[in-house]
């Protein structure tokens, strides 16, 4: 029996968003409406929903960006075997994108093995979340339909569990056309839920005002990058839209591997030899630099040792405990390494007040990334 958590709006004070238009500045405010968060008994899964649209996902999501190249050679058979091991361990939600190399194709092979080798009730638990990242061209119904059909074919599913939409250029309002066409495809049964990725707070509000039933927004969110908690989470708390986070362990930077290392001294630290390590090292630089990051790692290690877990486990749990967060992505290097034990430990870890205070004392010393970078997704829209 699922535990139903009713969330009161009385604790939130939502400030209206000012939107600049050709006619001046408009102040828009969405009216409050009740929403519900539904967690399973062991808190391993959560239901994301908007109106009649809903999808249950594992709170730790297997991120498949690592299949796109730059993390080591992926052997398809080994990758699919690894996907089965994750699913058998209860990590049944996989996140991919049309631009993540063979990710959707691997999922198609995987889901067919699940259909052949696992009972029907197991198949029903597996979720494939994908993203559509089109160029900001004219969004016609046919273009959207054909693009989504490619993902459906690659993933070998009649309906996509979740389609997370990304848009590069906000000056082109074609994103609203695309989302309306995606909603039409949802009504036809080609997509089960429509969601977003890397949208900012202002555009999320516009999308909701246009009555487009998105269930979630996937954004970068870690202990270092707390931007989603400054504006986005407040709107999500008000409207019921949930956050799915990525970059939660910063490509592996938030781990014992980088504890007590000096990146400035050649060969004194593990190489930053993957796209994710290089990306999130830039986030560290923007936040406060390597010395402050070492202070954070030592603090996380103290907390981790106290609970008998690892630094990545603490990092994921801290973000999962934040308002509006439904699930957190942990990247999987399929066939190359596994972190099933660390991920399992997240569900039994309880961070107490002392743990949280220790972490927050370090975070106060870092820079406000909302001021440095901008709102969620702005890192993709700045030259």
From the N-terminal CA to the C-terminal CA, the straight-line distance is 49 Å
Major sheet: 8 strands, parallel, barrel
Into which percent range does the helicity of residues fall? 25-40%
Order of helices and strands: EEEEEEEHEHHEHEHEHEHEHHHEHHH
| Total helical segments | 13
Strand order in the sheet with the most strands: 7-8-9-10-11-12-13-14
What's the total number of strands?
14
| Structural class estimated from helices and strands | alpha/beta
The coarse overall form would be globular
Sheet-strand content, in percent, reads 15-25%
Commentary on this structure:
This protein is α/β, with parallel strands linked by helices and 383 residues long. 37% of the residues lie in helices and 20% in strands. The protein has helices spanning 76-88, 103-117, 120-123, 141-155, 174-187, 201-209, 232-239, 275-287, 290-307, 311-320, 340-346, 353-363, 369-372, and strands at residues 3-6, 17-21, 24-28, 36-39, 45-50, 53-58, 60-63, 93-95, 127-132, 160-165, 191-197, 214-220, 242-246, 325-331. The strands form three sheets. An eight-stranded parallel barrel has the order 7-8-9-10-11-12-13-14, surrounded by five helices. A four-stranded antiparallel β-sheet has the order 1-4-5-6, with no helix packed on it. Strands 2-3 form a two-stranded antiparallel sheet. It is globular.
